[in-house]
């Protein structure tokens, strides 16, 4: 509600914001935020006409599916998206500027509005995809869009305005739209128990709770185009509660995805691609995760495609419970030169895996050599774009059938470029070295992280028939010397067992593998680094990791003592581990900067990386793997949460350092992506400038044939959910 007399805006949790002037804050995107166009022009033009058609329809499916993220993120995200689409479809950013100026906005204020809009599109919602912090327009209250948007958009603004501009929130239970507003952690755990009992995956679900006659009633919504009943759908009595399983969540968008995947089938290069798309269509039509797993099996078998893609409910980072997947879809073109290096790394994997610091019994019985390619992204629809991916995330497939790795080359080329004057927390003599070698070192880290990090390690499992995938009379815990006493049973998975820490814990394990194996000369040689250059790559890779651990404090919330970003929590944990090693390996000191404000400097003794550093990561990595392999949730959680703690105690006051990090933080870059259109018998690629206006225009032109229908459906879906947020 809005209290116009007090000038404060309230959201459903009662938090308020009174904003009378533009100020820097973690709840705003700065006007000078980096915005870069993803260049895929050359890669796309090298495709055959058939491959371009295939890429086009896969892109269309991805863009429609990507809108689902608006519904998953927050109750107001879809309405804000519709508002912005209405505004910019009527007036392009350049035209709207005149109206905004006439309404009293300065050039700086209008740019703040454009940056907010671009941020909403780039994150597919009003929470940062990296960190889950809400962002609001960096405008004085009296200059919010009510005063200059077209009249046709004002109704939409009234629906979402108050929620859009309340700002002291981060995603979590009670806010995330994966759950109704009245769900708590106990509900999430109870629902997982029910889903496990029915052998249902949470990946494509949302959970809504009501109470009828004093009885807890839960509605599990499956994402699907169809809304009819199927096996397991309907009502189920479960431990004094009632669960209703319904298909048809996001039905309109799921249907659009299926229609475009059906068209893409006509241009598939081989039978594996056709079967893959057929299974995806089946999955998205009826809500079957098993069908998506089957499609993923065909995807793994599709070795070395020119056009690579993946689509579905994939990553569980943003589910507060860690089990539900956010929708994403990507389409990319293989960069053959860079892919050759990754192929060499894959060929060396069987030699490198035994180097990892756990007993052979804790490694997979057979390493299934995956595809590992460098890709130039044409389309990446979802809440953000990563540097690399290791998928599918289904443990049973990854353990026995394989996976694929991809490195997103044109993302790496622009995402991690650093200007010296914006480079924080390093000594001056490290800065030039860091700028020169950050790109090459990060390329090595991404390769090792994805292939041998996420691709390594065995999970000990006893299946539904009582069969073990290990010898329970022989396998011993290397930490204790005793026979292992715990493992995964039946339908239990890594995500369902480790839940809230699963994503970050696994990212930490993969990062540690990268640090550990980058010390291997053979690895460095594969990436073209020899001699002194190789040593610089190692040094900057480790330096980048400890600096990232300090930067990670931005993503910690002291009030709830919680982390909002899996990778940054992982890097902070690694920083803590390396600081604890002592012997001068890593130094961290607070100081006063040249500007007179609080600052900090982090240092790394390169002479101790191969001794103190290596042995420290070796021991920690072994512990991480043992807890993961044995399903030891209690031990794993104690280890990981211990190093994740952010306190003012001890040698370093991390709570005070967090304030320094926030003071000097640099906003994460946003990307502008191209659109494709059918013109006659050919596909046309349309690119946009790397600016807020360019990013906005790309979305305005993304749905040329049915924009108003799409927006009406988004409003309808939001309206259906609204009773769950009262």
UniProtKB/TrEMBL annotation:
The keyword Cell inner membrane does not apply. It is an enzyme of class 3 (hydrolase). PANTHER family: DIPEPTIDYL PEPTIDASE 3 (PTHR23422:SF11), DIPEPTIDYL PEPTIDASE III-RELATED (PTHR23422). GO terms for molecular function: aminopeptidase activity; dipeptidyl-peptidase activity; metalloexopeptidase activity; zinc ion binding. Belongs to the peptidase M49 family. Binds 1 zinc ion per subunit. Its EC number is 3.4.14.4. The active site is at 450. It catalyses: Release of an N-terminal dipeptide from a peptide comprising four or more residues, with broad specificity. Also acts on dipeptidyl 2-naphthylamides. This is Dipeptidyl peptidase 3. Its cofactor is Zn(2+). Pfam families: Peptidase_M49 (PF03571). It is found in: Cytoplasm. It comes from Cyprinus carpio (Common carp). The keyword Lipid biosynthesis does not apply. Its main location: cytoplasm. InterPro entries: Dipeptidyl-peptase3 (IPR005317), Peptidase_M49 (IPR039461).
